[in-house]
Structure formats: C-alpha cells, structure tokens
Design a protein that fits this description.
FimD_plug_dom; Outer Surface Protein A, domain 2; cell outer membrane; signal; transport; transmembrane; Immunoglobulin-like; mainly beta
Length: 636
C-alpha cells in the first residue's frame, strides 16, 4: 500500500496440499519512505541491516540508511577522481582498453573529473588533454578497486535500532548497529562500525586504498566480545582484499582472505544461534581461515579462461573444505560453448573418519540458435561426467513463440547411465494480466504434472488492474478509456476495458519513457500524445496519463455565407477541439455520433458560428473510410 511518500509492505504466504492443513506464514511487515534531501531511506518494521561492514542480519525496529539508488549513475560505485591542468580551452578524453569512457571540455587552469561511470574493478585509464592550439598531452591514471572502496567525498551509512530476529524466540535481544564508509582523496576509503546486542559487542575498523599500478587493497579488523553465555567469547577476525588487473595481458585477479585469530570469534548470528550451545562444539565448528581467489583471462575470438578457488579451514583439527573451478568459454555468431572442471574436497578431521571426501566434475555445454528454422529458439547439449557418475547427457530445446513472444517453452531429455532417462516439457504464457505455466516431467521413479498462475493486483481510485508483477516501482497507464492498446516495447501488456494497464519493473530515480503502440489503437481512438516520461521513487506507483479521444473521427469542411471559415479558426465540440486549416477543413477526433460544432475566428459576435453534425448510419458504416467527411454550413 502506498500513501503519499510512505510505503507499507507485508510478506505472507499460504501453503496448502492434499496431505496437510493449510499453513499461513508471515515473513514480516515494514513501513518505509525516501528522504530525498539526504539521499536516504527510513524503514520501520521487519528489515535487514546492510552487509557493508558486518554480516547482514534480520531485525525488527527502525533503520536509517543512505541509498545509492538515488545517486546519478555517474556517482554510483567506485571510480577514481582525475585531476589535471589545461593551458587553454581544452577537450579531455578518458579511455580504458581503447574505449572512450568520458569526454568533456574544460577551461584554462586546473580541472577535476569526479563523475566517471564505474567500470571494471581494474584497468588503467588513459587521459588525453587536447588544447585549442592542437597540442595533445597524455597521462595514465591507474585504476583498481575492491568492494569496500568509495568515491572521494562520498558517505555511506546505516543506523539501526531494534530487536534482533532469531529463529529461536528466546534469543531475540535488543540491538543497535552503526556503520560508516567514507571516501577520501588519493583513492583512500576509511570504514568502520559498532554492533551491540545485550552483552554482545563487535567493533570494526578498516581501510581501502588504491595502490596505483600495484592494484587495490583493503584491510578490516573485527573484535567481538560476547558475555551473554555461561562461557564468555572473545575473538578477532581479519579480512584482506586485493584486486589487480593486467591490461596488456587481459588478466583480472582478486583475492579475499579471512583469518580468525581466536577460535572463539563469533558473529552476532552465531552468538545467538542457540540458547545454550556447547562451547567445545562451537569452537570446533568455527572457521580458522577462509580464502577466495578468482582469476580470468581474455583471449582472442571472445574466448575467456577463468579460475576460482574457495577454501575453508576450521579450528577442529584437520577439518577443511576446498572447491576449485576452472573453465573456458566463448560465443561466436550466437553459438555459445563452455568447458569446465570442478574439484571439491572436504575433511571432517575426525579420528574415526579422517578420509577426505572428494568429487571431480567435468561439464561440456553447447547452445546453438535456431533463428533460421525456429525464430527465438535455441538448441542445447550438456555432457557431465563425475567421479561418482559415469556420465549423463542432456539435449534441450527452448524459446518463445508468437509475435509478442508471450508463449515460452522448454523441452529437455536426459540420459544417465546410473539413474536411467528423464525428461521434462514446460510451457508458459504471459498475458499482460498474469502468467500461466504448465509442466510435465518424468524419471525412472515417477511422472509429475504441475501447473500454476502468478501475478499481481493493483487497486487504485478508478478501479482494479491485473498485472504479471508488482515488485519495485510500477507505472499505472491511463489511456483515457481506450482498451486493447499495447505498449511500444512490451507487446504482452495491453490496456483493459477501462483503458488501464500496469508496466512493472520501472527504474527508480531514473527517467522512464513509456510509449503506446499507435498501430494497436482501435479505429475509434485518436492519440494526442504517444509518450510519457516519468521519474518514480523506490516502489512507487506513478501515473502515465495519455490524452486520447475515443469516438468518431471526422474531417469537416465548414462554410459560412458560402465561404470557407478563415484559416486558424478555433473549432470545439464536446471533449475535443482543433484549428481550421486551409479551405475551411478541420479534423476532430473523439466525437459523439451527433453534436454541435462551435467555431470562432475573432472577438465579435459576427466572427462566431455553430453547426450541427450527424455521423450516425448509414454515413458511419462501411464502405465509408475510417475518417468520415462532411461539409457543414455554419450560420451565425
């Protein structure tokens, strides 16, 4: 429910089947609004803390947080500030990997560019300053970032107070949290925060720094103290992030590492995970180190190589988990293929069962467009082989049908040497009022049939509109009573009998251009404006009103005393008006079958006249043209 700037939201679900009684589940309710002056959001009720400094947790209370969504695109994310000096009125061009990212003109003297759009996490920026006398000076701005880095001068914050939400009702203490992230000059970011709940406290401090050609680095320290259990907890955790790009090689590298300096470190959710945890078990389950490494390599012909490694070790002796992935992928003329290898290992570290568990999986995937045979469709093939499975093969066909792509389908058949064969057939239809789906699947154990419907309902002052989605900002379209009119770029969405429709997924805080398809207008509808521009806020319902004339269309030739009415005369009828063109002709739309035209071309009574018209059958019936024509005498 939206009332002015306030938005009330609630998440509930009803589950029922033939075996159990219907079950009603409430996930939460909250009231929120934008504070545009401070580019922030105020939320009351069930919500989550931000995950910028501490792990995100659910709580019930009040939250005040900055909103990046309200910023211009050129201020979102991290990008370096470029400084330079121009001798004359100069053109400044910024390139990355040969592509122009930014271009502007500056006056003589020092200049600052602080509104670059965020790009890849690393890659040097080439800056060219072209003076008015033709001289060009170039310099390189090193660019690398990690997730904690903020633009120079930006401030990101989150202040919350309320009651921590836990699955255990007895473990829901009062809590508060404050987190701050501030960007400074020279690509420096400082951040920190305080998290407190009953006798649990966690303090965090950190910094992110661009290192020029050496990449970017961030370091964070967290110090947690928990006194709410019988066995107190004290522990520290360190996080290190590093990012580096090698432009000439086309290589990107990132590293994230956690080191828990004491086995008793616990996050807020871990500290309140159970009412009376066993201390020894909790210590053994706590992590000792976490490593995440990713690397990618770009090659000619749109080929990409990638490598990733995730590894966790625990304080319990020898327990660890490791997953390594590597692969190669490419797409040429719409044909996409990939080959990947995954190696997973885990060890419990138990004396009785210390043999590590491992699995290796190789996957080959291929997707081929069938645009020449079946437009909008793709054929796929996947081959998978693992240590515990001799191999499985799957062939698939999926795509969309109809001119508006409203009908989607997917067919797949899988053959596994261990589990036998299985297959599925699914179809979905989007009507603009909601989505319908139907599916059938089978395997060696059973066959299943499933079906469903989904959508949303928008209730407004003039009626009710059904829509496929109601998430985020939406646009309520008012076509002035014209039904069956589709959107220019959303052919599945059409106005209902009252002339209303809903366009979901509008982009908040951005210009949204909504256009009607003039070719879909009924014969008795004329459109005065085909495009509306709107800037909605988060989760807003904004109205796009299109001025339409519903009724007959006619081209009248008006005469007074045997002479055509003067050029530029004003002519009006009920709910419509127009201007006389040459030879006394005037076009009017949205006319009633019968009525009176009033014309005026000056202030005196002798410069006014009226004429009655009648567009009823047989004149309005075929084979007469869509725009009817009549010649009328307009006496004073």
């Amino acid at each position: 429910m939206n009332v002015g700037a306030w938005r009330l939201r609630a998440s509930n679900s009803l589950t029922a089947n033939s075996d159990d009684k219907p079950q009603w589940t409430t996930s939460g309710a909250w009231l929120e609004r934008d504070l545009t002056r401070w580019q922030s959001e105020l939320t009351l009720g069930d919500t989550f803390t931000s995950g910028d400094v501490f792990d995100a947790v659910q709580f019930q209370g009040i939250s005040l947080a900055s909103s990046d969504a309200m910023l211009p695109d050129s201020q979102k994310g991290f990008a370096p500030t470029i400084r330079g000096i121009a001798r004359t009125n100069a053109q400044v061009t910024v390139r990355q990997n040969g592509y122009v990212l930014y271009q502007t003109y500056v006056t003589p003297g020092a200049f600052v560019i602080d509104d670059l759009y965020p790009t890849a996490s690393s890659g040097n920026l080439e800056v060219a300053v072209k003076e008015s006398d033709g001289e060009i000076r170039r310099f390189t701005q090193p660019y690398a970032s990690v997730t904690s880095m903020q633009r120079e001068g930006s401030l990101k914050y989150n202040l919350v107070a309320g009651r921590y939400h836990s699955d255990d009702a007895s473990q829901r203490p009062l809590m508060m949290q404050l987190s701050l992230m501030r960007g400074f000059a020279h690509n420096l970011t400082l951040f920190g925060g305080l998290q407190s709940a009953a006798q649990y406290h966690n303090l965090s401090l950190g910094a992110g720094q661009g290192l020029g050609e050496a990449g970017a680095l961030s370091l964070q320290l967290l110090n947690a103290r928990d006194r709410h259990q019988q066995d107190p907890i004290d522990g520290r955790a360190w996080q290190l992030q590093y990012s580096k790009g090698f432009d000439r090689l086309g290589t990107q590298f990132t590293f994230t590492g956690w080191r828990y300096s004491h086995q008793r470190y616990a996050t807020l959710s871990e500290a309140y995970s159970s009412p009376d945890p066993d201390a020894d078990s909790r210590d053994n389950d706590n992590k000792k180190t976490t490593l995440q490494i990713t690397a990618s390599q770009s090659l000619p012909y749109d080929i990409t190589l990638y490598l990733s490694l995730d590894q966790d070790s625990y304080w319990s002796g020898g327990a660890s988990q490791r997953t390594a992935n590597m692969g190669i992928s490419s797409q040429v003329h719409g044909i996409a293929w990939s080959l990947s290898y995954s190696d997973s290992r885990s060890s419990h570290g138990d004396e009785e069962d210390d043999e590590p568990h491992s699995d290796k999986v190789v996957t080959l995937s291929l997707s081929v467009p069938l645009s020449h045979l079946l437009p909008g469709s793709y054929a796929g093939y996947t081959l998978t082989s693992s240590r515990h499975s001799v191999g499985s093969q799957m062939v698939s066909l999926n795509g969309t049908l109809l001119d508006n792509h409203a009908l989607s389908y997917a067919v797949s058949q899988t053959r596994d040497r261990q589990n036998g064969s299985s297959g599925s057939l699914t179809a979905g239809y989007s009507s603009g009022r909601g989505d319908l789906n139907l599916g059938y699947s089978h395997d060696s154990q059973a066959a299943r049939l499933n079906y469903g419907a989904s959508g949303g309902i928008l209730i407004h002052r003039h009626g009710v509109v059904f829509t496929p989605e109601m998430n985020g900002a939406v646009v309520l379209i008012d076509a002035g009573g014209a039904g069956g009119v589709t959107l220019a770029n959303q052919k599945t969405i059409a106005t209902n009998g009252d002339g209303y429709a809903v366009l979901p997924f509008a982009t908040a805080y951005h210009r949204n251009d909504v256009s009607l398809d003039s070719h879909s207008l009924p014969e008795n509808v004329d459109l005065a404006n085909s495009t509306a521009t709107l800037v909605p806020t988060k989760d807003a319902v904004v109205l796009a009103r299109f001025h339409t004339h519903v009724g007959y269309k006619a081209l009248f030739t008006l005469q007074s005393r045997g002479q055509p009415l003067p050029f530029g005369s004003e002519v009006r009828a009920k709910d419509t008006n127009s201007i006389v063109a040459s030879e006394g002709q005037v076009y009017l739309a949205g006319l009633a079958p019968k009525g009176t035209l009033y014309a005026q071309w000056g202030p005196s009574p002798q410069q006014r006249c009226s004429a009655r018209y009648d567009l009823t059958p047989p004149l309005a019936q075929p084979p007469h043209p869509l725009i009817l024509q009549q010649t009328l005498s307009c006496p004073f």
